[in-house]
Amino acid sequence: MKHERREIETPDGTTLRAESWMPDEVRCVVVVSHGQGEHVGRYAALAEDLESIGAWVLGPDHRGEGASGGKRGHVESFDVYGHDLVHVMNAYAKDRPDCKPGAVPWFVFGHSMGGLITLNALVAGIVPEWVRGVVLSAPLLRLAMEPPALKVMLGKVAAFVAPGLSLPTELDANHISRDPAQVERYLADERRTTVVSARWFQRMNEARLRVMAEVKDVSTPLYWYVGTGDQICAHEASQEAFATLRAPEDNDQTLQSWGGYYHELHNEPPDLRTPVVESIREWIAARID
Questions:
Q1: H-helix or E-strand containing 166?
Q2: Cα–Cα distance, 212 to 133 (Å, whole number)
Q3: Total Cβ atoms within 10 A of residue 209
Q4: In total, how many domains does the chain have?
Q5: Among 98, 103, 117, 248, which is most exposed with the fewest C-beta within 10 angstroms?
């Protein structure tokens, strides 16, 4: 598998760091939309898992995250994230015409904030029609533990008075996985971002409420899964949103709940992550041809 890093400039001049993992024979492309406070490099293991089905896994560090440009943990609109993602997709497709949409199928894998970015882009019509399907991993549609009302109120005020104000995420790393090695690796990762801006928090709330209200009209094939032990993103919100879909059976849309699983299901202890990864691999493989 060939691993490469590159920089891609967006139309507004922001430089995005992107990475890709290419197998010897490309049968599909999987674009990763990572979560808040992390980066696409954390999906190298998933790329290795998908190598067996010929998946070229690629994606950017979102603006303000990882090694990409932009104010840390800040965005003016979640639509911007979606447009960035499509811009990166088009950049890779231009460089490899033999792997462009139409030549091989393209999929999006969105985890946590990346799942919200993907869902928001779907309801906003940003995701191209040629995307064959979407895998959603524990999307951020509601926090498992709502912040205190006072903090929410102060955040709303700051979003208008000082939108760039940085706030600590206060995420408990022990909630990402039951694998101590994964928690230790996460805490030692110097590429992760530990803050979000007041504007980010405001736009995140706007995006999740929009998705909850409008996701019913999404017809793109979906493999949507959550862990019932998730202490970061409320799995119940995903179940509520999925229940509004108009015709999930006709549109090849499924929701799977993994009992007791923590937030990063793909980073749970080896014996637990294996069936999750197999389900992702099988779902994508069944839609390649």
A1: strand 166-168
A2: 20
A3: 12
A4: 1
A5: 98
Distance of alpha carbon 97 from the chain centroid: 25
pLDDT for residue 158 is more than 80: no
Kindly report the CATH number assigned to the domain that includes residue 185.
3.40.50.1820
| One-letter amino acid for residue 2 of the chain | K
156: confidence class by pLDDT, cuts 50, 70, 90: low
pTM (global) more than 0.90: yes
Both tokens of 237, joined, read: 């919100």
pLDDT (mean) for 122-132: 98
Q: Over the stretch 4-22, which tens digit does the pLDDT of each residue have?
A: 999 999 999 999 999 999 9
**Alpha-helix residue ranges (DSSP H) falling in 96-197:** 113-123, 149-161, 180-188
pLDDT band for position 150 (cuts 50, 70, 90): very low
Facing residues of 17 across strands?
7
DSSP H/E element including 270? helix 270-285
Domain interval for residue 40: 2-285
Per-residue pLDDT at 202 exceeds 50: yes
